[in-house]
Amino acid sequence: METQKTNLNAHLMKTIIGLLFLMVAFSGKAQTAEELIGRWKYEDLYEKDNMKEKKIEYTDLMLSDMLFIFKAGSRFLSSGMGKVEEGVWTLEEKEIHFKPDHGKKSKLEIISYDQDHLTVRLGRESFILVREIR
After folding, report:
1. The pLDDT of residue 78
2. 24: pLDDT confidence band, cut at 50, 70 and 90?
3. How far is the first Cα of the chain from the last one, in angstroms, to the nearest whole number?
4. C-alpha to C-alpha distance for 134 and 40, rounded to whole angstroms
5. Are 31 and 69 members of one domain?
6. How confident is the model at residue 72 (pLDDT cuts 50, 70, 90)?
7. Which residues are registered as beta bridge partners of 119?
8. Residue 110 burial (CB count, 10 A)
9. Residue 108 needs a FRET pair 20 to 30 A away by CA distance; which of 24, 29, 92, 121 works?
10. What is the chain's percent helix, strand, coil content, to nearest 5?
11. Structure pTM?
């Protein structure tokens, strides 16, 4: 009888720990997505130490007007290089996925994040976005 009670307690404890883990995991993801809501503007290239000066200048010029606006309700607006897109965004693990209303899907890989800086990779280029409005 005592062994059954111990096994039941151990099983109950594992279940509670599992549920707590799931609650923390899902709430962390939702909070992170909510924290991304706002205006993010290109600030600088990331990991440019190995780039040639001409490439830094060219890439900096191409990205200088880049802007992402993450809205509540999973909508986004992005602009850059004379192009404006709107659509739906989702956060999956460490990637921001974009599904524009017109055009191809894309994604940004999140390298690092704090309240005011978002470092991302798009293809081979990595860059830093700064929160424009808090």
Report:
1. 96
2. very low
3. 60
4. 10
5. no
6. very high
7. 112, 128
8. 17
9. 24
10. 35, 45, 25
11. 0.73
Q: Are residues 6 and 50 in the same domain?
A: no
In a shared domain, residues 28 and 54 = no
Q: Which two tokens stand for residue 46?
A: 């990331």
- d(C-alpha 119, C-alpha 45), whole Å: 9
Q: Are residues 60 and 110 in the same domain?
A: yes
| 96 token code pair | 């921001």
Cα 131 from Cα 115, distance rounded (Å):
8
Q: Domain count of the chain?
A: 2
Residues 53 and 118 in one domain: yes
Contact 121, 108 (CB under 8 A): yes
Closest CA to 120 of 130, 109, 131: 109
Closest CA to 96 of 17, 36, 18, 19: 36
Q: Domain range for residue 112?
A: 38-133
Distance from C-alpha of 131 to C-alpha of 68, rounded to nearest angstrom: 10
For residue 96, the SS3 value is strand
Predicted local confidence at residue 130, as pLDDT: 97
Query: Do 15 and 57 sit in the same domain of this protein?
Result: no
- Looking at the structure, tell me whether residues 95 and 44 fall in a common domain: yes
